[in-house]
Amino acid sequence: MNEVQSKVYRVYEDFKKEEKPLTSQMVKARYLGEDRRHFSFQNLIDYHNEKRQHKLHKNTMGQNKTSQRYMTELFSEEFKVSDIPLAKLDYSFVIGFENFLRSHVPKSGQPKIGNNAAMKHIKRLRRMVTLAYRME
């Protein structure tokens, strides 16, 4: 009981620091974690493609979409899901993505992904994650 009371008090103090108007529904939503939207990786890909499409050359967008396709293949092959929440992205995900790229067997007629190409895909992942970090 004291734990719940102290957490509600911390939420109340956070609202006071933010100098926002306070209602009981706002405190309850923050306590339950319902006041924030939880974004997924697919949301990030859609947002990135929509906002950056007009600023980037069509070849660059094609390269970004290739990287995004590899990322979604990683989700389906390694994690057996179609999408993951952004909160689940961590260092182990980046290492797993690198290992996936290095061991990926491309379709016939395509060369294996080399070191420089793998690093470019990781760089594009970093740009997207940085975009998501700055949005929050």
TrEMBL record:
Name it. Answer: Phage integrase SAM-like domain-containing protein
- Source organism per UniProt: Flaviramulus aquimarinus
Domain Phage integrase SAM-like: residue ranges: 40-136
- Which keywords fit this entry according to its UniProt record? DNA-binding
DNA-binding: present as a keyword of the record? yes
By its UniProt entry, which InterPro entries does this protein fall under? Integrase_recombinase_N, SAM-like_dom
